Amino acid sequence: MEAISLTPSISADSVDFLLDSFNSNVKNVIDYIAPVKASKKTGRQKSAENKHYGTSEVSTDQHLQQEVLNKKIHLFHRLNLKGKHHNKLRAADVLQLAHSLQSHEYCAEEELIQTFIQKLLMMNYRARYLKTKENNEEVHNDQGSYNSFKQGVDSDFFSFFLRSVSNEETSQSDQIHPMDVQMAVFHCADGFLKQLMVTKLSQCQYAMPLLVPDPFTQQIEFPLWTFRQINKSWKIRNINYEAISQTQPIYKAETPMVFFFRFGSVSSSKSQLMNSLINEKHNTFFHRNCPGSSRTRVLMDGVVEIAWFCSSGSYDDKFTKCVAFCNLHGDAGDHEKQLQILTEMASVNVVLLPRLDRDDRSRTKLEELYKGSKPIICLLTENASTLIKTWKGKYMIGLKDRNQPEVSEELRRAINDCLSESSSTFRLKDVSKHSDIIVDEEDDYDCRRGREAAQQMMSLLEKKDLREIKESFLPHQGKLWHQWSQKNKELHRTRADETEMEISKKHTEMKKILEQQYESDISEFMKLFIKQMNIDAEHEKMFFIKWLIILLYEYISADRSALLHKYNEKWSTVLKFNDSIDKSEHLTTAQIEFERISEKLQSAAFGLEHIMREIGQIYESCSSVKKNKKDLQIHFSFLPSLAAEMMASGFPQELMDGDAAHVPLVWISAVLDQLVQKLGDQRVFVLSVLGIQSSGKSTMLNAMFGLQFAVSAGRCTRGAFMQLIRVSDEMKTQMNFDYILVVDTEGLRALELAGRSTRDHDNELATFVVGLGNLTLINIFGENTAEMQDILQIVVQAFMRMKKVRLNPSCVFVHQNVSDITAGEKNMEGRKRLLENLDEMARLAAEEEDCDVQRFSDVIRFDVQKDVKYFTHLWEGNPPMAPPNPSYCENIQELKETIMSESFNISKMGYNISDIQQLIDYIKAR
């Protein structure tokens, strides 16, 4: 235990010691400063004075409330959000390819919302640091005033000084506070956009809204729904000092919670002090010294924000476990409900205190907290004393004239001391148990109905072994489907000496397998899903899908987390032996063990993609025999419209089955047909991605388009998924496309780690993806030459095959995790080396494919200067607390602009949706 100074024992009843001992003459000081600070009194203090002097307290309060209300209305009007508080912004409105405003140093007020959302969706934490053109113009105007003064136009110094002060006050009063921009979006967003926004705030390592007063009614909302997609990872050390990884949905994680609040107006920044505890290099909580901060904040009073410190398992962690931090904005005395909820739920309370009058009602609450059993730390803004322990779990720290690192260290020690003696834990979802607050999930009828339908499905999985669920509930995608896929591959790899009879036999076997598949029963689980997807209420249906994704993840997360830990450990072992010179029998043993864990992990995977795959297989089996199943409540021909509707709503659709490594052509063609029926035969630009496993492909796409492809260590994406991104109306005229179809793929060489042959699999995947894409992003991670050689060989072979069938895709190489992307000479050398490798691979592939090719540019149009991008590190620091690197976000934006430029060049050679299904058929037949 760290040493903490202890004063002589005092009674808890002597709480006046806390409030008065640091002032030798409190009354004289208050009398002295009262006239000076009269204009800054709170509404509560003014009301007390009005009552004393006999004026109308009610009318004054009403006047103040009306003034605040007018400011809020004016703010929404300035941000071009008039009417959006009721007619909400939708996720579909922002998840589209629009003209980028991010490269502009300054933006107009009416562009603040769009710019903030664009940056946030790209995980750029600078979304909070926006400057408006109006403020920039004021700088120039001030400079003009100064020049006029120098030229003697107005030689009166004091007149100039007063005008400058007046300009400053006008500037401050006109400036829109960055957190008002964030909260305005939050208040005007629908449930899906709110959830996406809060998920992105979490990825940026920013605090998230926990309790939010409505700006017009002051009714407090707890937005539990917005936290449902957030998972946090951390490491703790066990009794053997081994680092143990944990990943949990944050709404159900049980952690200690430290609650910060203040009474009155204080000179020190509470949020800045909290940042020094969580991550001193990042502004988790926005504070008064952040860029763009002003005194004009109107939407943050009464808001409680929450952030989590996630320990890394290292010995220099500030806290040894995951700890939640809550921050109440504004004077806690004005927000009694928030104060009551959080002080009750906290493991430790931390209060910032100015001098308080003896008749200040905040003293009553403070005395109550001090006498209670819960630890409390009082930070005294007008006292300069070091950390003092006044009683068990009761501490004082002076803040006056002290440097922040010293105060922060003392506060950390006090909090750790309190946590070591407390077993109290906090669970986010338990906030909903408090009365007199609105819980968004309960308040939204469609959200509640969607959850009930998803829970009904999940009830069927109770007490079922995770590895047997797919076999029981999803029988159509089991062994029969895998057997059919293997037969189909053999059919397309016909040997030269294979007879017509042998080929006919395979066709007969495949037909027999489909007939057996048709005889499989549709599980009750799938019947419920199909029934719910067949309802007319679109909003409820979307909530149902979202809830099902959330509940399925929660259901499998515990088992998968343990398996994933073993998987990553064994993967590291295989890599270590694979890179060693002496590849002994240890490598073979490790590979066998890795394959066993990998198969367990694969069987334990159960998500929406497996449910949709089952729908696809039900459809294909019915199509093969041309009749409906007896236990299917709708005609099978309706099933593709379910998938098409989900695609049109922004959900990914599995294109290649990751387990069977096969494209279900009948199903995909039917889905695309239905998509044409729903959207029209729209023009699409197909963007594909290829790369080694864990090279950051999905992360890159998520940052580029605000998507939510699965991201974590190891093999996340299985097979290939396609997702539609709408092009905004203003961009359609420039790009000549209506949608971008993004194709995300599993990592190449993923199976090789398990010691299995991957050459055919990787070549087929690369050929399929390259042939499908108008543009393919080739993702290379780090500077591992051997890995680069492997992927280049696969990629060049794929492009060579496309050349032979007269398809003309293009590519951009994205070299991620480069240590110094500003080193021009190093980049030139890297480009030269890459081109040499590509040319060499092209010559080797040409020999295999019997083509006359001398260089890579003979295969496809390629400019090594324009078509190679270098990306910096994704993280600014070390996970799990590191935010994304803003330079990485800038790299993403540059790549996005390159893609858009490429789309202009090939708009005449683009596809309609109907062309894609023909293209898939064509590529698979090669």
UniProtKB/TrEMBL annotation:
* Keyword Ribonucleoprotein set for record: no
Q: Which residues form the VLIG-type G domain?
A: 681-924
Q: Where is this region: Disordered?
A: 41-60
This entry carries the following GO cellular component terms, namely:
cytoplasm; nucleus
Q: Name one GO molecular function term.
A: GTP binding
Listed InterPro entries: G_VLIG_dom, P-loop_NTPase, URGCP
> What compartments host this protein?
Cytoplasm; Nucleus
Q: What is its main location?
A: cytoplasm
Keyword vocabulary terms for this entry: Cytoplasm, GTP-binding, Nucleotide-binding, Nucleus
Q: What PROSITE patterns is this protein classified in?
A: G_VLIG
Matching SUPFAM superfamilies: P-loop containing nucleoside triphosphate hydrolases
Q: Does the keyword Nucleotide-binding apply?
A: yes
| Family membership noted in the UniProt record | Belongs to the TRAFAC class dynamin-like GTPase superfamily. Very large inducible GTPase (VLIG) family.
Protein's UniProt name: VLIG-type G domain-containing protein
Q: Which organism is it from?
A: Sinocyclocheilus grahami (Dianchi golden-line fish)
